[in-house]
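Appendix B, example 12.
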Amino acid sequence: MLDTEPALIEQYVRPGQVRIVYRHLLQLGERSVLLSEYSECAHDQGRFWELRYALYARYNQLFGDTRAAAEEAAAAVGVDPVVAGACFDAGAYRAQVAADFADATAAGIRSRPVFTVEERTLIGAQRLSVFQDLLDQALGN
């Protein structure tokens, strides 16, 4: 999926044909809550996606001191740690993250990745061609 997503962004998102909506799924308990809230704080600085990629790249480091790992990843992608830390400590996105999780749970989503294109749902990482076929059909291409 790490190779597929950039291709989809280039082919469909940048030209304005589709958009990606990210929802937080709290599979790792409190770690997921922390990472989700921290990534939303990074969004305030225009760095949500960059932090998301950096966190996935450091996945194994997140099982120690999760906040320190998130702060390190955030700093590596240009997030101001003081601003992001204050945002996180204030709980600015706690309700939004909880709502994402509640929506996912209500929809029966238990793992990721999950993709919805119109009425069709894809579960798990897929080949680029699967997305291209589905999106082209939905767009009438």
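The longest strand covers residues 114-117. The mean pLDDT is 90.
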